[in-house]
Amino acid sequence: MKIVLRLMMISMLFGLFAKVSYAQGEAAVPFLLLAPDSRAGGIGESGSGLADNSAAIFWNPAGIAFLTGTEVSITHSNWLPQFNLDLFYDYLTYRQYFEELSGSITGSITYMNFGEFVRTGEADPTPIGTFRSFDAALTVGYATKLSTDWGLGFNFRLIHSRLSDQPTAEEQGSGVATSVSFDIATMWRPEKFVLPLIDEDIGGKFSLGINLSNLGPKIYYIDKAQADPIPTNFRLGFAYKVIDDEFNSLIYTLDFSKLLVHRDSTASDEFYKAIFTAWADESFKNELRDIVTSMGLEYWYGTPGDFLFALRTGFFYEDPSYGNRKFLTFGAGIRYDIYGFDFSYITTSVFKGGENHPLSDTLRFTVLIGWGAVPESTRGLPRGI
Fold first, then answer.
1. Which CATH class, in words, describes the domain spanning 2-379?
2. Interatomic CA distance for residues 340 and 98, integer angstroms
3. Is the pLDDT score of 68 beyond 60?
4. How many CB atoms neighbour CB 68 within 10 A?
5. Kind of pairing between the strands at 248-259 and 200-201
6. What is the pLDDT of residues 247-264, one digit of tens each?
7. Cα 51 to Cα 64: distance, rounded to the nearest angstrom
8. Phi, psi of 275 (to 5 degrees)
9. Which among 1, 99, 113, 188 counts the fewest CB atoms within 10 Å?
10. Is the torsion defined by CA of 141, 365, 210, 30 positive or negative?
11. How many angstroms from the chain centroid is the CA of residue 103?
12. Is pLDDT of 174 > 60?
């Protein structure tokens, strides 16, 4: 239908800035790739190696295995502000540790609003009604420690995409699609790890995370013959606490991510094939260029369990031939008692041609409440609690 096609074009435009632009839009529902929270948004959208709050549901659910207590957070952001469109997303998270389960139960709701649209007839441009278009996902998960140093996390996700609410004239399909996906992740956060050559123990200061997300069947709006893969994604992340004293903490984060979708002009692989074929559909050099790199620094000042203040900055880089997103990020946050607030800001203006980039001036705001956790965990990289 025409109205669905128009909305799909908007979705593809949105996807252009969500790592699915290469190969004429490789995956559907690209909102599943958006960095959803302000804290990771402030450190260059790098979070799979840190993953020490409830937003780890997205970045690396295994990181929650090292946390105790309960946390609830909500994030809001107006998306692609340069377009002046009614695009925004909200992200709600929850985690709670259960001693009898030897792990944490987690959950999140992601909502991407595409705005209100006017419905017209097949040949008559006269408005006959309005409708709203959105994408949404409900995620539930579980995280547990396999040992003192290793964590494991799983997510199950229900995906619902509503580009339109009813067919137009005699055209088929309503513009509504539903699918499911799951994530599997692991985290290594050693209590003792001696670096060779320099003989330095960085235990409790270092973590490594791997997350394979959005594993699931294809999604379709009209018929199965027009189904598209969802954005299966691989993340490898590192975090290292450079400074850690009574009042100061400085953490460096580094993430590498790659979209695991393989398709040609006629068909695409199912996810269980694409997680292998997507690594070898081009030359090794180009496969490396297809990997997105992001990094950041997070500085905390204050006493854990009392008042904490954070400053953040980061850098996000995507090869010019594979999306060409480049931006700097900045952010800040506070923690007082059980309450917290974070915000982050994206700027592309420092790069050539970036002054009017749709991502520039993107802001995220997060409010959180966390209680029952060991206080030291509020400054990153908890030590096997």
1. mainly beta
2. 23
3. yes
4. 16
5. unpaired
6. 899 999 999 999 999 887
7. 7
8. -65, -15
9. 99
10. positive
11. 22
12. yes
